[in-house]
Amino acid sequence: MIYNVPAITSLARQCAPEIATEAVVPLVVTESGGDSLQINVNKGPRVRAGSVAAAAAIVRRYMAAGYTVDVGLAQINSANLARLGVTVEQAFEPCTNMRLASTVLQQGYGLASRYYSGMDAISVTYSLYNTGTLTRGLRNGYVGRVWSAAATLGSIRSTPLLPGAPVAVVVGAVPAPATPAANRNDWVVGQVAANQVEVFK
């Protein structure tokens, strides 16, 4: 099934309430375009199955051949399924897939926030989600694509500067007025409970 943005938003609120929808929805749009049966074979093809049973069979076939496979709405990597306690079939269930994305994002944010703060920590969380590393997702364009989706969806006003990205300087340009420190990040990022992270609110 293909989910539109309002349906993805509703699923995110219902199934991944620990993470703000503004964080999850752009990620899902970037990962699968809302296709709950989307399969991406890493270093292989993108495939769409007609049913969960057919999708699970495809995933198992590629896994048996030594590939990792990203599955479902949020493209959960098959290497994480056992650790997250789900079967291949369960990973294709939209609500379960969103819950798994929430778990992976929270874990990533826990690591990212040790080294970065504010929007940089969120960017690095997306990098970890995509690549398992703090910076490769910044370099390969993934984080930029998620932020672009967020801007297109209206979740943010403009895409933030990525950590380590060079600042362009135009000779002769009139500098923009300084932004007060309190307004640099409109959103608060932080721990709201022992096992919950609030972002973009």
Can you walk me through this structure?
With 201 residues, this protein is of the alpha+beta class. It has helices at 5-15, 21-32, 52-64, 81-84, 88-92, 94-115, 118-131, 136-139, 142-153, and strands at residues 38-41, 46-48, 69-71, 76-77, 190-193, 196-198. The strands form two sheets. The protein has a four-stranded antiparallel β-sheet. Strands 5-6 form a two-stranded antiparallel ribbon. α1 (5-15) crosses α6 (94-115). The radius of gyration is 18 Å and the shape is globular.
Strand order of the largest sheet: 2-1-3-4
Helix content: 40-55%
Q: What is the arithmetic mean of pLDDT?
A: 85
Strand share of the residues?
Answer: 5-15%
Low-pLDDT parts are 166-198
What's the SSE pattern? Answer: HHEEHEEHHHHHHEE
Kindly name the structural category.
alpha+beta
| 3D shape | globular
Please report the total strand number as a whole number: 6
Radius of gyration: 18 Å
| Main beta sheet strand tally, sense and closure | 4 strands, antiparallel
> How widely separated are the two ends?
29 Å
Number of H/I helices: 9
Oligomerization category of the chains in this entry:
single chain
What is this entry, summarized?
With 201 residues, this protein is α+β, with helices and mostly antiparallel strands.
Summarize this structure as a short list of keywords or feature phrases.
201 residues; alpha+beta; four-stranded antiparallel β-sheet; two-stranded antiparallel ribbon
